[in-house]
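Good morning C.,

I know you're traveling, so I'll keep this short. The sequence:
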Amino acid sequence: MLYRIVAHKQLSDNVFQIDVDAPLVARARKAGQFVIVSSDAASGERIPLTVAGADPEAGTIRLIFQRVGKTTAAMADIPVGGALGYVAGPLGRPTHIEKFGTVVCVGGGIGNAPLLAIATAMKEAGNRVITILGARTQELVILEDEFAGLSDDIIVVTDDGSHGRKALVTEPLKEICSRDPRPNLAVVIGPTIMMKFCCEVTKQFEVPTQVSLNTIMVDGTGMCGGCRVEVGGKTKFVCVDGPEFDGHQVNFDQMMRRMTAYKELEKREMEQYQKHRCKIGLK
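The tokens, ready to paste straight into the viewer:
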């Protein structure tokens, strides 16, 4: 079965959004869940991507990804009318959604994509949603308009000050957690190091914090063990126990070490793919 791409949009230099024909996933998916995809059914690498949105009537799911390795580079090159070779899901535990009160949603870079579905569901449940979006530069801020449309308050920060405030996301997060009353929940999704420091901030103020982990993953069913992390001193598997966990319990340092396990192989595969692109005339 092929999963055809019905829409393709470039959000920034290396971030892409595609709508994929996957009716069964579109009907079953809930906020926080992900799919395992491959650009090539025969030999492609399998990677996890959170479903950023879905249209059950049209039978499509929306995937947003960053071009960082061979598979994501190959996916970025597939035009409308082309197809992914493999889509499996929805996988993982859905986000627990209820009326908490005030929910702070913190997104960093490509983390804005999975955060959008969660923030939307939190708003629909009657919560007051405060959103903090962060990126290195203005060009890397994605989905700002979508978050602005659903948030009661939105704060944008960039490392270089080219858009919004010149700050890291931890700065406004600390300000919000210092308020009386404090937020009832924080949801943080982004680079591992960002999630770690955000959790250190919220822990100081005893604000419950939920993070979504995007680890190395192969099968997505708990069989390979590649996605294992330490949470509360116990081994958990992101694919079946997560992808969301209590951020105050995650061993982020161990997770960051494991995420570098295949860096050299990933670099070599990307270099080979770039040579292939040049041979077939792609820039």
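Safe travels,
E.
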